[in-house]
Amino acid sequence: MTARIRMASAADAEALAGLMAELGYAHTAEGIRDLQAEIVARGGAVIVAEGEGRLLGCVSALLDVRLAEGRCGEVASLVVAEAYRGQGLGAELVAAAEAWLGPLVDRVRVRAHVGRREAHAFYCRRGYREVKDQRLFARSTPA
Fold it and tell me: Could you tell me the domains of the chain?
């Protein structure tokens, strides 16, 4: 499969919402446009794979700065449309995110849900190694 890897545009929002639905996240096109703009405003990028007249996949390249861990790049929200999985597009998208992050950081990390075992194997094949187990806690902000 030949795909063109490029930066996402606001016009991609509807297709990106569909890709996020494949990961189990419900977003509107408007919501995706807002999230894209915020990712870029915070110094990150949204990268897409395009082919056969449609978006085939996407990934976010994020910058994260923490007192304890310092500056780090993060590969997030990787998804390839189900019909196109297993053809190397995920690897191409991760490579594009790593290349974009490369001049900005000296480390790149990935978070993958504990239940996504195929994703764990995918990242391990690309040289990532598991470094930490942790629990994520969340709550709604007070009104």
Answer: 4-125 (3.40.630.30)
